[in-house]
Amino acid sequence: VPSSNQSVSSTTNTLITFGTEVIDTDSAFASNKFTVPTGEGGKYFLYSSVRVNDMGDGKEVQVSFKKNGGYNFSIGGVDYYSVTNSVQGATGAIYFTHSLIAVLAAGDYIENAIYHNHGSSRDINYTYTRFGGYKLIGV
Questions:
Q1: Cα 103–chain centre separation
Q2: Which of 26, 30, 41 is nearest to 106 (CA)?
Q3: Euclidean distance between CA atoms 78 and 62, whole angstroms
Q4: How many CB atoms lie within 10 A of CB 118?
Q5: Are strands 42-55 and 78-79 parallel, antiparallel or unpaired?
Q6: pLDDT digits (tens, 9 = 90+) for 31-71
Q7: How far apart are CA 90 and CA 4, in angstroms?
Q8: Which residues of 12-42 are buried (b: 16+ CB within 10 A; e: fewer)?
C-alpha cells in the first residue's frame, strides 16, 4: 500500500512506490518489489489495483507487472503483463484492477509500473492503490 499520493509524469513508465506492507509471511517484499523466496518457485496469482486522479476525456492509463526489470513476459505464450483503461465522455479518476497468474522461479522479482497520456503529471491515489499476490502451487 502506498503511504501517500504519487505524482506520475505523462507518457513515462513509472514504478509505483509502496510504503506499507499489510501481510508478508516470507519477508519477500522490499524496495517496492516482490522477490520469490528460495525454494518457493511456482505459479503465483498477482494483482494490482490503481486509481489515477483527474484524467481527461479519452485519456488512458496502463498498469504493468514487470518481471526481473522487463516489461515483456508471457504465460503460455500470451502476453498478460499489462492492462489499459480509459476515461470516455467525461473527466475523472480511472480506477481498475489488473491480475494474472505467473510462473516464477526463486529469485524472480515483480514490480508494478504505471503509464498515462494525460499531457501533464497526474497523481496515483494511495487510498485505492494496492499490489499483492500469493502462491498457488509449486512447479
A1: 17
A2: 41
A3: 18
A4: 20
A5: unpaired
A6: 889 999 999 999 999 999 988 888 888 888 888 888 898 87
A7: 26
A8: eebebebeeeeeeeeebbeeebbbbeeebbb
